[in-house]
């Protein structure tokens, strides 16, 4: 009996889901949307400014409380609705379309149109639609249309990165991170809408990321590119601990891509479409390299944040989201292959999380630990959101596909 098949472990996961959902309630901003929480669970200033609401955090929390609503947790649905209202209101650019990256009490703080945040608008709207929340279906339709018109680049089969508020100026940079979350969002939207074109786009993204780029670089996935998708392997070498664009290969993304690729393969098959044979073996290779490069490589337990192109650690801090994604990837790979190594590692990753990351004193998980697993805040101060941790408690209890919210809506949770 593995933990992944254990009803007792599933009950513990459910308890942890509820503990996280309770912690996140304080992130509700009364003006609309969700703010960052500090280490003790109180609303925190963003970049030293009170009252800033960021698009990506609001979307993630809307997604999470949509999941809570589908789980039947009292109070979760009003929080999901609060997020939808912000996406239909203060975060939306009524003049030029799309969504601001962040807003404050007096209006936009960062008015850029970013693919990363817009992908999360799709995910939040898809999850809220699955939960039957008012206004969510119209938001989802709008979010897909904006992304299709502005960000999707059919010539490359990838998402563009960012634009100025009026869409007139486009950033030359291209990033794999925004494309990973685009794939995630497309999968959820395809499950909710039945739009198989989104699955085709997802396959194009995954093919470039894994079958081309990761395979060509020894299963260490390049993160940064120019406008023609040429890798920029030394990008941000002088700022290696950047929270969104770090130098080198990002260990947690290896796990996230592995999980999403297996999910995509399952979604394609369920839709009656062909899933290329490279998908699951590539996902396994990417996950395995992430474990080899990332886990306890400096003598201390935990995953380092990034490594260079030879696999040497660069940023050694331990991020909570990396462990969460390792948990999710191990669960999905075990469910797909039934290989015993994934069940063993799944337990190992949870043991580390329980010993070092779960904060019993103040709630949620520590978002960052040092290389010796002490308190740290060099990249991620405070506890900004619940997205990775909550998903780590749900993925092991659900089928590989559909996506989490449509799966819960379909009654697949035992």
What does this structure look like?
With 414 residues, the protein is mainly α. It has one domain: Glycosyltransferase, CATH 1.50.10.10. It is built from 13 helices and 14 strands. It has helices at residues 7-24, 55-70, 76-88, 115-130, 136-151, 176-193, 197-216, 251-270, 279-294, 320-337, 340-357, 387-394, 404-409; strands spanning 53-54, 102-104, 107-110, 113-114, 152-153, 158-159, 162-163, 174-175, 224-225, 249-250, 306-307, 313-315, 318-319, 368-369. The chain has a three-stranded antiparallel β-sheet. Strand 11 and strand 12 form a beta hairpin. The protein starts with 6 loop residues before the first helix and ends in a 5-residue tail after the last helix. 52% of the residues are buried.
Layout of helices and strands:
Blueprint lengths: L6 H18 L28 E2 H16 L5 H13 L13 E3 L2 E4 L2 E2 H16 L5 H16 E2 L4 E2 L2 E2 L10 E2 H18 L3 H20 L7 E2 L23 E2 H20 L8 H16 L11 E2 L5 E3 L2 E2 H18 L2 H18 L10 E2 L17 H8 L9 H6 L5
Antiparallel strand pairs: 1-2, 2-3, 4-7, 5-6, 8-9, 10-11, 11-12, 13-14
Helix pairs in contact: 1-12, 2-3, 2-4, 3-4, 4-5, 4-6, 6-7, 6-8, 7-8, 7-9, 8-9, 8-10, 9-10, 10-11, 10-12
Can you tag this structure with a few keywords?
414 residues, mainly alpha, Glycosyltransferase, 3-stranded antiparallel β-sheet, 13 helices, 14 strands, 49% helix
What's a concise summary of this model?
With 414 residues, the protein is mainly α. Helices cover 49% and strands 8% of the residues. It has a single domain (3-409), classed as Glycosyltransferase (Alpha/alpha barrel), CATH 1.50.10.
């Amino acid at each position: 009996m593995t933990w992944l098949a254990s009803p007792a472990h599933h009950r513990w996961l459910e308890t942890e889901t509820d503990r996280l959902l309770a912690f996140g309630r304080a992130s509700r901003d009364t003006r609309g949307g969700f703010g960052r929480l500090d280490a003790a669970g109180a609303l925190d200033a963003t970049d030293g400014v009170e009252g800033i609401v960021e698009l990506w955090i609001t979307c993630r929390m809307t997604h999470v409380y949509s999941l809570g609503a589908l789980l039947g947790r009292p109070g979760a649905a009003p929080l999901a609705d609060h997020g939808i209202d912000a996406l239909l209101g203060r975060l939306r650019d009524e003049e030029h379309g799309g969504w601001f990256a962040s807003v404050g009490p007096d209006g936009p703080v960062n008015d850029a149109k970013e693919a990363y945040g817009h992908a999360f608008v799709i995910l939040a709207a898809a999850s809220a639609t699955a939960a039957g929340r008012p206004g969510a279906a119209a938001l989802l339709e709008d979010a897909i249309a904006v992304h299709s018109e502005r960000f999707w680049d059919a010539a490359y089969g990838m998402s563009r990165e960012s634009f100025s508020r009026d869409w007139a100026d486009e950033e030359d940079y291209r990033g794999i991170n925004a494309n990973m979350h685009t794939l995630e969002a497309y999968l959820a939207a395809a499950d909710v809408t039945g739009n198989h074109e989104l699955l085709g786009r997802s396959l194009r993204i995954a093919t470039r990321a894994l079958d081309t780029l990761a395979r060509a670089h020894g299963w260490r996935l390049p993160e940064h590119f120019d406008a023609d998708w040429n890798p920029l392997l030394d990008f941000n070498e002088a700022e290696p601990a950047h929270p969104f664009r770090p130098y080198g290969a990002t260990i947690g993304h290896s796990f996230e891509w592995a999980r999403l690729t297996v999910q995509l393969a399952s979604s394609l098959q369920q839709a009656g479409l062909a899933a290329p044979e490279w998908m699951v073996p590539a996902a396994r290779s990417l996950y395995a390299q992430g474990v080899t490069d990332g886990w306890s490589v400096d003598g201390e337990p935990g995953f380092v944040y990034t490594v260079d192109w030879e696999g040497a650690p660069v940023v050694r801090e331990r991020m909570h989201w990396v462990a969460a994604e390792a948990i999710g990837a191990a669960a999905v790979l075990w469910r797909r292959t039934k290989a015993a190594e994934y069940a063993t590692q799944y337990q190992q990753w949870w043991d580390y999380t329980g010993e070092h990351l779960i904060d019993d004193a103040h709630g949620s998980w520590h978002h960052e630990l040092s290389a010796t697993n002490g308190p740290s805040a060099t990249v991620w101060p405070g506890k900004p959101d619940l997205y990775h941790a909550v998903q780590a408690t749900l993925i092991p209890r659900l089928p590989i596909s559909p996506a989490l919210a449509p799966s819960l809506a379909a009654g697949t949770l035992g």
